[in-house]
Amino acid sequence: MCATCGCSDHQHAPEGHTHSHSHDHDHARLHDPDAGPGHDLDHLPGHEDGHGHHHDDRDARARGVIQLERDVLARNALLAERNRGWFLGRGILALNLVSSPGAGKTALLERTIRDLGATLPILVIEGDQATARDAERIRAAGARALQITTGTVCHLDAAMVARALRELDPPPGSVVMIENVGNLVCPALFDLGEHGKVVIVSVPEGDDKPIKYPHMFRASDVMVLNKIDLLPHVRFDVARCIAFARQVNPRLEVLEVSATRGDGLEAWYAWLRACRSGPGATGVARSG
Amino acid sequence: MAVHELGIVQQVVEIVSEASRGARVTRIVLEIGNLSTVLPDAVRFCFDLATAGTVLEGATLEIIEIPGLARCRACGIEIPLELPFGTCSCGGTDLEWLAGGELRVKEMEVA
Fold it and tell me: Which residue among A16, A60, A69 places its CB closest to the CB of B101?
């Protein structure tokens, strides 16, 4: 694990956290006597995150500057890696579904469960600020679902997902869909331990969403362009939307669907099956 | 304003409280990359609120902003980035970020 940022895997570094430092950094720097007067940065045995440069009580009481060099999201990254290992060990494919509110995440899941549920075990973790309405919709479609209500928090984090997994207890070989809080900003920052992010954008939202919320589209593996049945009724240029998305993320796959009318869903199902049959159920190609 | 900055400051408080072992912290230095989704002004705005009643209460907040820098995967040259995407002079848009994504607690000063 990298002691500067706390991450353990380049490929799965949380978005917004791209390494600027090389991974052969000089760890002796952390023990630089110039780091602060009177600071002997002792190692504490058994320290959980492996950083090891904590200070004993004597040091903490001393005065001066202490170098920390700690990634702010290191704790979430650690928990996310734990989730990822948990999924991998059980051959579970986990996907993080993100979009603005109302783009059709739940509708896409309902339809997917109705079409594939008989052959593919799908379980859903629902994130919303309030109510269990979405989990009820998923259960009505025929899948097990667990609702996380985040209160004022605008995203799911790895700890919330870990707690949900203990309760949901998905069987080996299943697919866990994590429907994030409807928000195109904050969820980009928080790795949940998923194998890939699916960003859903719907036609009525406008074709410039990818360039207005670049972080999320950069962090995602596939863009599902939903509600294409509404194209005759709204101003939306599909080619322009895809061009914006690829400008932000040249490796982004694009699927055009209508979750309600059924257009393009075979391609979405083929994508899901391909992810599932990838090596160790990690068939999603991560973009750097 | 995006609301995740409050959560970010709470993570900072957690990291600093653990490292200081209860000692009062008078100053912290954060590094925030221009390509991270975190706005320095929003962090400053919620810092006092989020640190009230913690070891960081009343501490001075210093933010070092790190400009974005990327390498074009097509031609290999380095280009500055002001947004989390861009186009290289060769026309390439597949960019590897070298700097600007940072979100780090760099140092603290204890009383």
Answer: A16
Could you tell me which of A198, A132, A135, A190 has the C-alpha nearest to residue A160?
A190
Closest CA to A127 of A98, A159, A150: A150
Nearest-Cα distance to chain B for A72, in Å, is 5
Task: Give the distance from CA A11 to its chain's centroid.
Answer: 13
Contact A214 B33 (CB under 8 A): no
Cβ within 8 Å, pair B4-A60: no
- What is the rounded CA–CA span in Å between residue A142 and residue A270? 21
What is the model's pLDDT at position A59? 54
Verify whether the Cβ–Cβ distance B93 to A250 is below 8 Å.
yes
Task: Tell me the shortest Cα–Cα distance from B76 to chain A, in angstroms.
Answer: 15
- Residues of A66-95 as b/e, b for ≥16 C-beta within 10 angstroms? bbbbbbbbbbbbbbbbebbebbbebebbbb
Tokens standing for residue B86: 């861009």
Hey, what's the torsion of the CAs at A148, A172, A270, A114, to 10 degrees?
-60
The whole-angstrom distance between residue A125's C-alpha and the CA centroid of its chain comes to 13
pLDDT value for A22: 43
Q: Tokens representing A227?
A: 């509600």
Q: Are A130 and A149 in contact (CB under 8 A)?
A: yes
Mean pLDDT by 10 residues, chain A (288 residues): 32 39 39 38 39 51 81 95 97 97 97 96 95 94 95 90 97 97 93 98 97 96 98 97 96 97 98 81 42
Alpha carbon of B82: minimum distance to chain A alpha carbons (Å): 12
Decide if A63 and B84 are in contact by the 8 Å CB cutoff. no
